[in-house]
Amino acid sequence: MKYTQVVILCEDLQQSVFARTFLIECGVEPNRIRVAPLPKQGAGESFVKREYPNEVKRFRQRAHRMHIGLIVMIDADNRSVQDHFLELDQALR
Questions:
Q1: Within 10 A of 44 (CB to CB), how many other CB atoms are there?
Q2: Which of 11, 17, 47, 89 has a CA positioned 20 to 30 A from the CA of residue 38?
């Protein structure tokens, strides 16, 4: 599918490079990929969880007129993937 835009919300530069490269390899045009600003310092995980509701709000405002995708990346080093899903779901409430 040709997306109008794909947004990547992630913890650090390494994740953003990985996700961007993956999307390009899958056929997404590079100029259609936007990486949300990365955290300047501190814990990337808390940054992603704090920014997630804002990105989802932007996504929902434009999703009805655009083909848009949102990719969220968080390391699962300390907790399970399911725990992170629950935390992101709670952040939207």
A1: 19
A2: 89
Gap between the Cα atoms of 30 and 45, Å rounded? 25
83 contacts 75 by C-beta, under 8 angstroms: no
Edge-to-edge strand list for the sheet holding 5-9 = 33-35, 5-9, 68-72
Single pTM value for the model: 0.81
Average model confidence (pLDDT) across the chain: 84
Lowest-pLDDT range of 8-12, 32-36, 66-70: 66-70
How far apart, in whole angstroms, are the C-alpha atoms of residue 59 and residue 40?
A: 23
